[in-house]
Amino acid sequence: MQFTKLLAAGVLLTACLSASAQRPNTTNYDESKVGNLPLPDPLTCADGTKVTDAKTWQTKRRAEVLRLFETHVYGRSPGKPANLVFEVTKTEPKALGGQATRKEIAIYLTGKKDGPRLDLLLFVPNGVKGPVPAFLGCNFNGNHAVHADPGITLNPRWMRNSPDKKSVVDNRATEASRGSEASRWQVEMIIAKGYALATYYYGDVEPDQAEGWKSGLRAALAKDGANTQFAPDAWGAIGAWAWGLSRGLDYLETDKAIDAKRVAVIGHSRLGKTSLWAGASDERFALVISNNSGEGGASISRRDFGETIAVLNKNFPHWFCGNYKQYSDHPENLPVDMHELVALAAPRPIYIASAEEDKWADPKGEFLAGKFAEPVYALFGKKGTGVAEWPPVNQPVGDFIGYHVRTGKHDVTAYDWEHYLRFADRHFRK
Ligand code: GCU
After folding, report:
1. CA of 372 to the centre of ligand 1 (A)
2. CA angle at residue 113 from 154 to 145, to 5 degrees?
3. Which atom of ligand 1 is nearest to the CA of 270?
């Protein structure tokens, strides 16, 4: 049976994580020292029963795994607010030299115009028979950084000051930051392929700093506001940013130009952790993309290579839930590992991308999370990465679990987008 074969391949690969003694305090980049901690089995239920069919995964085991990620990693998020309000604030039918229609949509997250608000930027290709499939992801520097188009509203909210001392000054974006993130979005390429692109600045939902939640959505939704003492399983910032992506999808479901059943959620780095969690917690996302998401994203936490849970918790205490802190020096106690986060996307297609020089993110660990998710895809008769070993650079692989490690640094490049678009074409345009 295919499932047994795949599981055996997974066990073999696990056994290859060669032995090491104590976890060192310094960053490990030596493959022979990643350790040999056994991985939790996605197919064993809490009551010990084995999952051998798709139905049992969907009706029983999937909910257990999702709950474990909520309780121990990202925290629990509230559902869709009843009083969400959308307001199209700007429309330009001839954007990008006439290639696209650009829209801006204010999403009032508590229904009140003076409450927290997320601004969605949407490019829809012109002259294409719709409704069209779309990519949706958070951006780091404001919608105006995604493309140099001067018609995009400059984000007015808090941002980290830029090293160039020009793009972001006194924690506010300046005109100099227009298009500063453009190479990561490849808007023209996406539009030319007939896809829409929707994005929002993650700081609209919560400024990315330890105390950022006090002026963000998490405080706005809490009874005690900025005085809230969060429960150990309450959502962290990643949970809040992912929640914002679901609200973006809520809007896309109302826009006739978009086919909301073909929306891919995408993110890079911390926002790749966010897209993985959004895809896991909201099954309306039809395809999931993780770009260099690293520790706390696609990388297997039990492999001691590059960033660790301890470092994440120390440097970014606001990203995960309180319970995640107890795993700082004990990844072996975490009741899940990240192959199970990938598995939560099943049977939907997922693409994991690494970069050769992005050792901090543990590229091989990112691949293995995809590889070890295969038994769950196999339940649905879906093929995963299609390879037994970590592939060489610039050789994309995979059927329902796409993967590549490209040459170069921690970034999103035209190469990455080329392969995301191919993958989306393969699954969205059958
Ligand atoms: C830091 C962090 C990573 C994260 C990255 C990013 O390097 O340690 O976990 O992915 O920032 O978001 O750029």
Report:
1. 23
2. 15
3. 12
